[in-house]
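Homework help board

Subject: predicted structure for assignment chain

Our instructor gave us this sequence and asked us to write out the predicted structure in token form, then describe one feature. I got the tokens but I'm not sure how to describe them. Can anyone check?
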Amino acid sequence: MKRIVLLRHGESQWNQENRFTGWTDVDLTEKGIGEAQKAGELLKKEGFNFGMAYTSYLKRAIKTLNNVLDKMDADWIPVKKSWRLNEKHYGELQGLNKSETAAKYGEEQVLVWRRSFDIAPNAIPEDDKRNAKFEARYAEIADAELPRTESLKECIARTLPYWTAVIFPTLKKVDDLLVVAHGNSLRGVIKHLKGISDEDIISLNLPTAIPYVFEFDDDLNFVKDYFLGDPEEVKKLMDAVANQGKK
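My token output:
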């Protein structure tokens, strides 16, 4: 049996403030650190033995991974970072409060911006200081590849090549893999793995720091998926994520 654990980062400062975050590099809250540590303890208890871990270029994911591995006494395992695992870019919405934006534009419009498949928010201007082209961490990436905004479709187009060419083939060499990333970059992977339709993906919400396990047979055929944790508690947390975009 082969397993991949997908883990959204722990609560960030802007999760706490209910802001659109995207590529903004905000830190974890104390609660977020605790969530990551709890996930690490649970994964250790359940007998996971990761041979490799992957994460994004954003500190909320990196620090979540570090806390998970520390609780598993697995700080030594190889870790690869890729900008392709970054969160969906929210364009001009980045930094805005979701509830206030819903009050201004309507809950339906905010749901479209947050969860629809192929509609992106307005792009940030080229001279906006938030433009990734001005950041040293993206200096080696072609400017044409750096988003100014993204739909989920565009986020998947960025993430999936890395998944199929780098992450998934590693499962041939190890039994357990860990991927710590973001709500939307992981939603794209889940859409791919489970064959979720463009219409149904809108209803998938990932809670912070709850391990989501995908099992495969030795030929890497998908077998089953499940969250680690109490199903009622997981549903409550998923509903809370869905409600972030309401007035």
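Reply (TA_rk): Your tokens look well-formed. For the description, you could write something like this. The longest helix spans residues 152-170. That's the kind of observation they're looking for.
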